[in-house]
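Quiz preparation item.
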């Protein structure tokens, strides 16, 4: 999760919402990602999607079973669904997203009983650090808008 927080700082430095993701498979970092929506002009360029795409490309297949995705903020519905589609076993996130969380805060796509795969979810890992980074980012953004 510490590496994911470092990646979130990279996103922030590039003008994106500070979210970072690290995908671990077989005890090794298989892929990393950070939000790139602004830079890429791509609404799907969330940290989780970037990491999942990178891991799939490196492994030569879309099934990422046996992996854990660490992300600084609870994934949105799109990213939670991508975890299910990629057959990720475990999702660990920092702070919840009470307005858009897809892993339990708003809806639970990640481990929905009617889907063909369920992701084990654990939240609250380094929660305060992740939440503080997001709060600071949006506070700065609001201050810029008022200037």
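Solution:
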């Amino acid at each position: 999760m510490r590496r994911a927080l470092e990646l979130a700082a990279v996103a922030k430095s590039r003008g994106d919402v500070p979210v970072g993701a690290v995908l671990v498979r077989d005890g090794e970092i298989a892929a990393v990602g950070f939000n790139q929506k602004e830079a890429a002009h791509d609404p799907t360029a969330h940290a989780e999607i970037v990491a999942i795409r990178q891991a799939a490309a490196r492994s030569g297949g879309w099934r990422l079973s046996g992996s854990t995705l660490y992300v600084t903020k609870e994934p949105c519905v799109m990213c939670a669904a991508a975890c299910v589609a990629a057959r990720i076993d475990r999702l660990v996130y920092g702070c919840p997203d009470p307005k858009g969380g897809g892993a339990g805060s708003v809806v639970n796509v990640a481990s929905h009983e009617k889907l063909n795969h369920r992701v084990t979810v654990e939240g609250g890992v380094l929660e305060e650090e992740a939440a503080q980074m997001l709060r600071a980012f949006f506070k700065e953004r609001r201050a810029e808008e008022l200037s």
